[in-house]
Amino acid sequence: MPNNRSGYLKNLLTYFISGLIRGISVLVGFLLTIVVTKNFNMSDASVFFLILSLTTIFSYVLTYGREYLILSEVAVSHNNKSLNDNISYVMNRALPIILISLFTCIFLSIFILNLNFFNNSSLAINFKKVIYSIPALTGIILLSYGIQGQDKISLSIFTSRILCPLLIIVILNFGSAGSISNILQLYVVIAWASFLITLICFISVKGNINNKDDSNVYKKGKDAKNIYLFAIGVCQQVFVWQGTILTFIFFQNEDISLIAVSQRTALIISFILITINAVNAPKFARFYAAADFVAIKRLAVNSAILAISFGALVSFFMFIYAENILYFFGQEYSYDTDKLKILILGQIFSCIAGPVGIILLMTHNYKFAAISSIIALLTSFIFVFIFRDLIGLNSVPISIVLSLFLKNSIDMFYTNNLLRA
Q1: Global pTM value
Q2: Torsion sign, CA atoms 249, 251, 257, 262
Q3: What is d(CA 96, CA 278) in angstroms, rounded to the nearest whole number?
Q4: Residue 241: its pLDDT value, please?
Q5: Is the pLDDT at 292 greater than 80, yes or no?
């Protein structure tokens, strides 16, 4: 009994600390949005959010979905290794992908973005300024997932969610970035500095749990079809930035900041779910390696209850004070609360669904995770294409909610079948 109580308190402390760090990361993201909207006009702010979305998506594209293999592999068979082992792991698993990302960016910069078709595009000109940040961001993603697999959840949140945006905030607030062009160029330096810090964190950290090698788990990850991992990595980032992308494709560029502010604000609701998933992902991987489906189900139910409780509470206050929240970004943003209120509903459903998405990934059901993501995103794009003239810009947040509902519903179906087997 004392051991069970001690284990419960330890888990509770882990959730609390990780939740606190995750809360700080949400605050940093919120502050970044405020600082950008305060320092730049709506047009330049829209450019910044669009470029940020493109670099983030490209950095995940160029991981080729390997971040989940690294998380699973480190959690099960590479935890608690020595400094030399960690350096060797980086050289073998992460460095080749980072180099591929670098060569891809060089090719894009020299041969593609210099074509006449792109030379006259302001988007291409701005994208060229930040393109060499992408390999660094790719490395941060891979190594942060590795740190998460080491059970250093708070540190992984810091490296992946806090470090880079915090440095941007500092420069915008206390530096002399000046124009949007200058901050985009500085972003490359910030990204590589953040990568070096993340690299040092990974190779110098040892996990808390001693594990034996499990070749079966690695084999399952190794044999997973690359196309599914690639699709998952791309789709997950498109989900995060789909408001910005849809607005860029179907509406005016000046509208991007309106949607980006509302979507980034609504994401505050799901921070507790993201925290729970970050803490539990290595546990799901280990339970699956041990074929302990009862433990997976128990952990999933507890996670969902916790996510619903906190998500509903935060949603209630955000819904009531939507106008006041948006006023932080400037008076011009506070007049349009409908988009934020619509997006709040979508985040509530994500909390209800709980950790179904991460369970599919940690149990190597990459095919099902990819299918649900692709179906949901295609539906979202089709919805905006059909209804943009009828309901205008509100078609974007509605499509986001629809995509979240579809993805989580399909993931719930697959996860229930998995746990019932």
Answers
A1: 0.76
A2: negative
A3: 25
A4: 85
A5: yes
